[in-house]
């Protein structure tokens, strides 16, 4: 019998039954095949092996050109740390295919996939007031004093409709078009600044709790790491030809790199939820990225490129520039610091 992708897929169908704790196949197996099946059953099915497939074997990040039975495991550990009965041999036979010796390929996977469960929140996730429009979770933070609980930080115009919402209103992720019921509730609005049209607004920020029944969280930015410190911009760096490179993590445009391109100041910002006309917002710095920010990126964290140091959060933008609000006044107004818990 020749090794082929078809044979590999057929073998996978036989072995996949072990994920459900049963055997398949109508043909009666002989004593040797039955003994082999008992050995295979002792592999860590469901305990560690959560997927099985047929495909190209990979080694050192590249395909080897050989066909293999691929085992997807929760933890990939050295053979010396496994009981003999739990070790999957480099090559093995499968009942029903006595003349073939299949090659193994073990690949880690982070967890058992879920079809529908609590939303997993992280910086860059979509987030907004349930009656608002899509924005971005900027940071996971905690209060300076009091209980050590994770909170989400974004713009007031994202989580609190520019200050026109009420404390304990629901925030949701993902955001849907229903403005009367929070179908995807992940937490409650806690604290926010009110944006006013008759005065300058030094901070556009808001906090929300995380409801464990509706969401899990991680403070780490996927592919970058956990925000670790605040990066304060120097006066000498606040110019059109600034040497400071930045990274934005938005819910719509994803990870985008750019550069600081102006001085710290107050700017008019238009099209804010709950308001008609432009509002003056302070502590803003112009910056640019090749891919302009989109509606839904408001609240996105802005990092110093290549680091996990936080410069600020994205507030607004146009065709040429984005505006970031520097982090220190936002954190101070909301009474929080970067999440440092487990």
What report would you give on this structure?
It is elongated and about 85 Å long. Helices cover 10% and strands 37% of the residues. The strands form four sheets. It has an eight-stranded antiparallel sheet with strand order 7-6-10-11-12-9-8-22. The protein is mostly beta strands.
Which labels suit this protein?
about 350 residues; 6-stranded antiparallel beta barrel; elongated; 8-stranded antiparallel sheet; mainly beta; 4 helices; 22 strands
**Secondary-structure element series:** HHEEEEEEEEEHEEEEEEEEEEEEHE
**Radius of gyration, CA atoms, in whole angstroms:** 26 Å
The outline comes out as elongated
Distance, first to last CA: 53 Å
Question: Could you tell me the strand content as a percent range?
Answer: 35-45%
How many β-strand stretches? 22
SS-based class? mainly beta
Which percent bin holds the helix content?
10-25%
Instruction: Specify the biggest β-sheet.
Output: 8 strands, antiparallel
Strand order of the largest sheet: 7-6-10-11-12-9-8-22
The count of helical stretches stands at 4
Low-confidence stretches: none
């Amino acid at each position: 019998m020749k090794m082929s992708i078809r044979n590999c897929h057929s073998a996978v169908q036989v072995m996949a039954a072990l994920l459900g704790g049963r055997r398949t196949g109508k043909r009666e197996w002989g004593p040797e095949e039955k003994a082999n099946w008992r050995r295979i059953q002792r592999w860590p099915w469901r305990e560690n092996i959560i997927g099985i497939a047929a495909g190209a074997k990979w080694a050192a990040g590249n395909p080897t050109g050989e066909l293999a039975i691929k085992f997807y495991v929760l933890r990939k550990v050295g053979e010396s740390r496994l009981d003999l009965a739990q070790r999957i041999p480099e090559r093995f036979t499968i009942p029903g295919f006595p003349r073939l010796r299949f090659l193994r390929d073990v690949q880690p996977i982070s967890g058992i996939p879920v079809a529908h469960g609590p939303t997993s929140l992280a910086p860059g996730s979509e987030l907004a007031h349930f009656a608002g429009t899509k924005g971005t979770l900027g940071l996971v933070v905690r209060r300076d004093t009091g209980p050590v609980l994770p909170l989400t930080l974004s713009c007031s115009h994202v989580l609190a409709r520019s200050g026109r919402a009420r404390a304990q209103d629901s925030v949701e992720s993902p955001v849907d078009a229903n403005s009367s019921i929070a179908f995807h509730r992940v937490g409650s609005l806690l604290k926010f600044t009110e944006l006013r049209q008759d005065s300058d607004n030094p901070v556009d920020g808001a906090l929300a709790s995380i409801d464990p029944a509706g969401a899990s969280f991680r403070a780490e930015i996927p592919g970058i790491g956990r925000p670790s410190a605040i990066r304060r911009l120097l006066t000498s760096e606040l110019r059109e030809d600034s040497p400071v490179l930045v990274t934005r993590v938005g819910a719509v445009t994803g990870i985008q790199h750019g550069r600081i391109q102006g001085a710290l100041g107050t700017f008019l910002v238009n099209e804010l939820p709950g308001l008609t006309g432009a509002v003056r917002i302070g502590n803003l710095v112009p910056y640019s990225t090749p891919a302009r920010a989109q509606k839904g990126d408001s609240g996105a964290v802005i990092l110093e490129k290549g680091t996990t140091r936080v410069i600020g959060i994205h507030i607004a933008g146009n065709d040429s520039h984005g505006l970031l609000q520097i982090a220190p006044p936002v954190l101070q107004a909301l009474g929080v610091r970067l999440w440092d818990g487990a």
